[in-house]
TrEMBL record:
Entry GO MF terms: GTP diphosphokinase activity; guanosine-3',5'-bis(diphosphate) 3'-diphosphatase activity; kinase activity
Enzyme Commission numbers on file: 2.7.6.5
Lineage top rank: taxon: Bacteria
InterPro entries: MESH1 (IPR052194)
Keywords of the record: Kinase, Transferase
The protein, known as: GTP pyrophosphokinase rsh
Native organism: Cedecea lapagei
Group of enzyme by EC: transferase
Gene3D superfamilies referenced in this protein's UniProt entry, alphabetically: Hypothetical protein af1432
Length: 165
């Protein structure tokens, strides 16, 4: 059963092998492992864990929905596509469209998005405080529409972005 998540981990590690984190220069796969770990702490759901590993392969590396479907099946492909920020327009428009997309996502997809936010927030706040002002406001708005995500993770994320519970 856990084979799907393991295959997704290996695929993501291979695809992201040359990618580094923006502020820390750590391997990008550290972020993926953190998101997958956060997700697995609240969801014992192999498709969700697989999607947590794969959540950036479309928008960062151009992996296609067809490739995901072929490698991992329809549920994983659907989940990763729901997590992929592919909207166009200026930043405000892209973020608005992303919120609309994610507001309609299944609870486990929303939970992965919250885990991603948790993983990213502390690094951005620490290393880029000027951008963090914009980032934190965008994430407050996003959290407002992720109503189906795991409430424990939502509480952590809200605390990170300085939102009142």
């Amino acid at each position: 059963m856990i084979d799907l998540a393991f295959r997704a981990m290996k695929f993501a590690m291979d695809k992201h092998k040359d990618q580094r984190r923006k502020y820390t220069n750590n391997p990008y796969t550290d972020h993926l492992a953190e998101v997958a770990g956060i997700v697995s702490a609240v969801l014992l759901h192999e498709v969700a864990i697989a999607c947590a590993w794969l959540h950036d392969v479309v928008e960062d590396l151009g992996v296609t929905e067809k490739e995901l479907r072929s490698e991992f099946g329809a549920a994983v492909a659907r989940g990763v596509m729901a997590l992929s920020d592919l909207e166009e327009g200026n930043r405000a428009e892209r973020k608005r469209l992303s919120r609309e997309r994610l507001s309609q996502a299944e609870s486990w997809v929303q939970t992965i998005k919250v885990a991603d936010l948790i993983s990213n927030t502390s690094s951005i706040v620490e290393h880029d405080p000027k951008f963090a002002v914009t980032y934190l406001e965008e994430k407050r708005l996003l959290l407002d529409v992720l109503t189906e995500a795991d409430p424990r993770l939502l509480a952590i994320a809200r605390e990170q972005v300085g939102d009142k519970p």
